[in-house]
Amino acid sequence: MIPLFQRRGPAYGRISNIREYLLYSYKNEGTLIEENILDFTPRHMHDWYGKAKACSLMAIDMIIGYHENEEDNEERRRKIIKRAKKFLYFDWRGTPVWAVPMIWRGLGYKVRHSMIVDFNEMKRELDAGYPFIMNLAWGDYPAHTITIIGYQIWEIGFRKVKVLVVADGWSNRIRYIDYNAMTSISRGTLASIVFGRKKG
After folding, report:
1. Among 26, 74, 107, 196, which residue's beta carbon has the most beta carbons within 10 A?
2. C-beta contacts of 26-34 below 8 A and 24+ residues apart
3. What CATH number is associated with residue 51?
4. Is residue 69 part of a domain?
5. Residue 168 lies in a domain
6. Inside any domain, residue 5
């Protein structure tokens, strides 16, 4: 089977084996010089939301569960769905991107929304212990919301390859995004970031 990162055309994400990806894409596995991955359990959204298009709700659900040390909570899920329906969520269509901050904010979190995909800002948030939400417009995660749970920095020659560690809602396993590839001009990937911290 051809790995996901070896398909034709530009690719930046859905990477299952980061070392193999680096060797394939950069011709060198490189050296891991910095890493921080939060103690976060990825879940497939079908485990909690059935066949609904609920990637944004799943991301919010997983993050709240992480902070509350309670991974699976049916009552929390009902509250999230109820809140989302006030902002045009339908299980057959999903959640409008603009609604994600408002849904999360109404669940007891201070939320900050950004269209600037800045690695250093994301790194600071993760170093402080806060996973966050990213919505991608196209590419490997077209119109899909994922949860960023960590980062890595690899040194390959004179280059530093920055990697985001992901719970993508399509798998129960950790996935990776090549931040360098995702933000390169040739890919033109549009992303929306939502940071959130519990009030109080």
Report:
1. 196
2. 26/156, 26/159, 26/161, 28/156, 28/157, 29/156, 30/154, 30/155, 30/156, 30/157, 30/161, 31/154, 31/155, 31/156, 32/152, 32/153, 32/154, 33/153, 33/154, 33/155, 33/160, 34/151, 34/152, 34/153
3. 3.90.70.10
4. yes
5. yes
6. no
Count the neighbouring beta carbons within 10 Å of the beta carbon of residue 136.
23
pLDDT tens digits for range 17-51: 999 999 999 999 899 999 999 999 999 999 999 88
Handedness of CA 55, 118, 65, 82 (dihedral sign): negative
176: left (phi over 0), alpha (psi -120 to 50) or beta: beta
Strand pairing class (191-198; 159-167) = unpaired
Provide the domain count of the chain: 1
Instruction: Print the domain residue range for 181.
Output: 20-198
- Tokens at 24, concatenated: 């394939």
6 in a structural domain: no
pTM of the predicted protein model: 0.91
